[in-house]
Amino acid sequence: LQADGIKAVDPADPEALGRAVSAEWRIRRTLAEGVSPRKVEDVLLDRRFRRVVSGAKLCGAGNGGMLFGMLRDPADRAAAESILQAAGMTVMPFRLSGGLRFEDSDG
Hints:
Elements: H1 2-9, H2 14-28, H3 38-45, H4 47-52, E1 53-59, E2 66-71, H5 77-86
Antiparallel strand pairs: 1-2
Helix pairs in contact: 1-2
């Protein structure tokens, strides 16, 4: 899974990165019951949300936290925010500065 994520970041492939994020979440939410609240599951299953987000996962300490999503197209940001707000979620927009990059820690 980690290799899939790294391969997706290198060519800046948001679809592949979204798939890797979602795959990780599918595994993580099986680790304990209640990790993913019903409200979050409802959003993740919403066809409108899936149309604008290539992948998403819940980050944090379980039963809440922060829902992270990869937009398919930055122009769809308002649509994604509207879906989240309609579900009672607070939108906290952010931007990656300079893009994602990996550095070799071996020197």
